[in-house]
Design a protein that fits this description.
This protein is mainly α. It has a single domain, classed as Four Helix Bundle (Hemerythrin (Met), subunit A), CATH 1.20.120. Helices cover 81% and strands 0% of the residues. The protein is built from four helices and no strands. The radius of gyration is 16 Å and the shape is elongated. The structure holds protoporphyrin IX containing FE (2 copies). One protoporphyrin IX containing FE binds next to helix 1, helix 2, helix 3 and helix 4.
Length: 134
């Protein structure tokens, strides 16, 4: 089975979903649906990224490993970890008891989200380098 196609397909979908969610949070906050769309798209991004990781794992496994060997894989795993932490940080904005901490959490979520998007982009570029497209 060609796991690479599934790896790229899942992660490209995750990237598009996350980027749309970020654009909505940045430019469509005046719409009452923005947070629903931001959450749903980011949830889809997390699920597709997890699937993409499983395909990467199977791909490396079927070629005999070892896992997490190239810079792309290290970047990819770090991005995945950040991506999994983001919803926790997002949810905390609404759940925190001490309301004075909300602005700090918002700022942390904003910057961590931008870092996640930058790392995601770097991982894609490193992946394209790996397969000789760049
Ligand atoms: C156009 C985009 C991408 C291409 C062409 C690509 C390509 C590849 C290739 C060829 C490998 C196998 C490396 C090896 O033999 O060790 C790989 C592994 C991997 N990729 Fe990607 N990738 C892309 C996007 C991503 C993204 C966006 C992520 C994560 C956010 C990611 C995460 C990983 C991980 C974690 C591995 C290592 C799996 C393991 O060692 O078990 N990739 N990728
Ligand atoms: C992978 C998951 C997520 C990523 C990558 C992400 C990323 C981002 C980014 C980059 C921004 C800032 C946009 C800008 O103003 O430039 C943002 C804003 C925001 N996000 Fe998320 N987000 C994620 C999940 C969530 C979740 C699950 C929630 C809520 C449960 C949430 C709630 C918010 C809120 C309330 C804001 C506005 C913060 C403010 O007013 O400064 N996010 N998000």
């Amino acid at each position: 089975m060609n796991f690479l196609i599934f790896h790229i397909g899942s992660l490209a979908t995750a990237f598009i979903a996350m980027s749309s969610a970020i654009v909505i949070a940045r430019f469509f906050k005046s719409k009452k649906w923005w947070i629903k769309a931001h959450k749903a798209l980011n949830l889809a991004a997390v699920l597709f990224a997890l699937a993409g990781f499983v395909f990467a794992f199977l791909m490396v496994q079927s070629s005999g490993g070892p896992h997490i060997r190239v810079p792309h894989a290290i970047l990819g795993l770090s991005t995945l970890i950040l991506l999994l932490l983001m919803p926790v940080l997002g949810q905390a904005i609404f759940k925190i008891r001490d309301k004075k901490k909300i602005p700090v959490l918002k700022k942390a979520h904003r910057y961590a989200g931008r870092l996640t998007a930058a790392m995601f982009t770097a991982t894609i570029l490193a992946g394209l380098l790996l397969i000789g497209i760049l």
